[in-house]
Every structure is written in C-alpha cells, then in structure tokens.
C-alpha cells in the first residue's frame, strides 16, 4: 500500500493503472475510519483491480462555527485498517495542494444542496460536490463507493456525475450500524456515554416511521409528529429537522408513494447526528 500526497503524483499513477487496462475503485473519506468506511472499501475491493481511498478533511464543507479543527484524526490507525483491507493507494493530500492560493471554482446543485441538511449547513454541499469533483479528476476512478448514511450527499454526487458527464459508476452502500442500531459515524466519539445510549432513539424513530408507512399510514404529518414525540422524550436531544421527501429529488412529497426518504438531523449537545431510511411503496 502506497501513500500519495500530491494531486499530480496521484494523476500519474491513475493514468498508468488505466494504461495497464486495470480499473480503479475509489472511496473518498475524511479519515478516522470505522466499520462503515471499511464496508465501502470491501465493495470497491470486490469490484475493481486497484483500490484508492482518500483521506482529506475538506475545510470548504465546514461552516465557520463547525468542528473543522477538532474533527477527529488518526492517520496511523487509518493506515493500518486500510492495509488490512488490501487497499493499494491512500491519497492523503494537504489542504494547500488541494486549494492553492488562487483557487476559485465551486460546484453547486441548488435544488439539492439547499434542502434538508443544506438548510442548517449553508455551503456544506457545495464544498462536498466541489471536493468530490476534484477527487474524481485526480483519482480518475471507474467506480466510486459512497454510503447511504449520508443520503443527501449520495443523491448530490449521483446527480453531479450525470450532469457533468463523469465516466464513473456510483455505488451507494447500505448504512453500517452499531449493534443497537445507531449509524456508525466518526462524530459518535463526541457523545457522552449517556448520550451514546440515548442516540439510538434516531434509529428507533426511523424504524417506527418505516413500519407506519408499511402498515398503510398515509398522513406525513402524523408520522413526523410521532417521530418528534419519540425523539423529544430524550432530554438531551434537539431536533434540527425530520423530513419525508422524494428519495431522488429530495423535494417534499404530498403523498406517500414511490421511493421516499425519511431523513433527520438531531443534536446531542454539540454533536449533530444524521440518519435516514429509504422506503419503497407501490
Ligand atoms: P466521511 O468520512 O464521514 O466523509 O464518510 C466517507 C464515506 O463513508 C461517505 O460516503 C459516507 O457516506 C460513508 N459512511 C460514513 N458512515 C457510514 C456508515 N455508518 N455506513 C455506511 N457508509 C458510511
């Protein structure tokens, strides 16, 4: 496994892999890896000749009051975990090499970036779309694997790939959960032991909503009200949003049918957790 630190070196390697007729599978991450990340890597490993994982805490997707500086980092641990998964290259660039002084470009998909998490995290998804586009041009993957855990991000990336004609297959992998159902996240370490126990309420609320829908409930407000009630019964939990939207367009729906996304963001102290579930109704 090799560690590549500059975009130029990574592009040369990608070109040479393609010249040998081999495919590149890519998993972009911000590091501090957990089993959720490793499950994406396993998919890339199964489906491609060469696997590249990027580790880059992208400053442009953090708001001024967000946790950029204290975002957890442990490269040595990540390196060991990725070696075990037989990753071929870690792309581990510096901020300076990704955003030199005269950097000027940003990508936006307003109808998708300004809803759900985009409302309380302005500019976040422009940062995400832009860094992923840059990473795609640097790593030149044939396929890239993202997690359903960040459902809005997955929709945005799929749309961007289609709109900008990136010749890349996007795979969205299921959310990896802790035994009790909490979605794995690098940010879970911010939770106190009590909050960690309580945070499973997000999964329970989503499951509850899914069951209501499967049992024939059609009233969106009623479903959301019940989810709110469940989550608000936890004193430390502060709801940012709970929404039921079209799973492809992320726009609000009038009635429960087709492929829908139940998405939520809830704060426990300073820690903002997100989770979602897709439900398909005929
Ligand atoms: P991050 O390091 O948080 O930027 O995440 C990197 C990638 O891992 C993204 O595609 C995430 O959606 C994905 N990911 C994070 N947590 C999980 C999880 N619990 N299950 C599946 N994928 C995940």
Number of strands: 9
The molecules bound to the chains, other than polymers, are:
adenosine monophosphate
Radius of gyration: 19 Å
Kindly report how far apart the N and C termini lie.
Answer: 46 Å
CATH class division of the largest domain: Alpha Beta
What's the architecture of the largest domain, going by CATH? 3-Layer(aba) Sandwich
Compute the number of helices.
Answer: 11
Order of helices and strands: EHEHEHEHHHHEHEHHHEEE
Strand order of the largest sheet: 1-4-3-2-5-6
Give the name of the CATH superfamily of the largest domain: HUPs
Counting copies of identical and different chains, the oligomeric state is single chain
Principal-axes geometry comes out as globular
Provide a concise account of the structure shown.
The protein contains eleven helices and nine strands. With 282 residues, the chain is an alpha/beta fold. It has a six-stranded parallel β-sheet, sandwiched between helices. The chain has a three-stranded antiparallel β-sheet with strand order 7-8-9, with helices on one face.
């Amino acid at each position: 496994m090799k560690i590549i630190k500059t975009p130029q070196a990574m592009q040369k390697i990608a070109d040479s892999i393609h010249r040998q007729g081999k495919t590149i599978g890519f998993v972009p991450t911000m590091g501090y890896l957990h089993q959720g990340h490793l499950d994406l890597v396993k998919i890339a490993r199964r489906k491609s000749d060469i696997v590249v994982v990027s580790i880059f805490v992208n400053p442009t997707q953090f708001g001024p009051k967000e946790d950029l500086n204290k975002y957890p980092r442990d490269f040595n641990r990540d390196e060991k975990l990725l070696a075990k998964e037989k990753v071929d290259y870690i792309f581990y660039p510096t901020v300076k090499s990704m955003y030199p002084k005269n950097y000027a470009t940003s990508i936006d998909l307003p109808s998708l970036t300004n809803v759900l998490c985009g409302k309380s995290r302005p500019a976040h998804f422009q940062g995400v779309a832009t860094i992923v586009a840059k990473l795609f041009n640097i790593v030149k993957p044939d396929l890239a694997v993202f997690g359903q855990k960040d459902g809005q991000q997955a929709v945005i990336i799929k749309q961007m790939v289609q709109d900008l004609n990136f010749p890349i297959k996007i795979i969205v992998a299921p959310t990896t959960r802790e035994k009790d159902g909490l979605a794995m996240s690098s940010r879970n370490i911010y939770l106190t032991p009590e909050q960690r126990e309580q945070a499973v309420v997000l999964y329970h609320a989503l499951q509850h909503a899914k069951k209501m829908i499967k049992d024939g409930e059609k009233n969106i407000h009623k479903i959301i009200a019940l989810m709110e009630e469940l989550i608000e019964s936890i004193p430390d939990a502060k709801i940012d949003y709970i929404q039921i939207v079209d799973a492809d367009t992320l726009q609000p729906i009038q009635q429960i049918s087709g492929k829908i996304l139940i998405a939520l963001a809830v704060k426990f102290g300073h820690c903002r957790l997100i989770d979602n579930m897709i439900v398909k109704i005929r």
